[in-house]
Amino acid sequence: MTPAGPILAAGCVLWRPAASGEGIEIALVHRPKWDDWSHPKGKLKDGETLADCALREIREETGQSCVLGARLPTVHYTVDGRPKEVAYWAARAVGGSFTPTREIDALVWLPPDRARRRLTRPRDRELLDALLATPTR
Known about the structure:
The chain is α+β, with helices and mostly antiparallel strands. It has a single domain (about 10-130), classed as Nucleoside Triphosphate Pyrophosphohydrolase. It has helices at about 50-60, 110-120, 120-130, and strands spanning about 5-15, 25-30, 35-40, 40-45, 65-80, 80-95, 105-110. It is globular and about 50 Å long. It starts with 6 loop residues before the first strand and ends in a 5-residue tail after the last helix.
C-alpha cells in the first residue's frame, strides 16, 4: 500500500482598504467546528489549480470576490497523522456579501493589530506578518 500524499489546500489573507481611508482591514472567519478564527482556506478539488482553489474558497467562505496578489508562504502541518500543505496568497477584496453557513458562522474585518490578537494559531499570525511585509500586496 502506497502512503497517501499530502492534503493540498489553498487560501488567502484577505484584505481591503479601511473605511477610514487609513490602512487596511483583514478578513477573519470563525469555524464553529474548531471554534477558531483563521484566514479563509480549503481543500483542493480534482482538476483545480491552487490559485483557483484559493479564489473559490474566498467566495464560499466570505462571499467576497477578490484579486490575488503576492504569493505568501506555504504552511505545512499535520492533520490526523497526514501532512497538509496550504498555499496562500495576499488577496484584495473587491466586493460581495457574507452569508453564514454551518462551516463558517462569522466574518469580521479588523485592523491588522486586532486581527493579530483574534487569530487562534501562530501560523496564521505569521501569514498576517508576511502580508504586512509585502510592499505590493
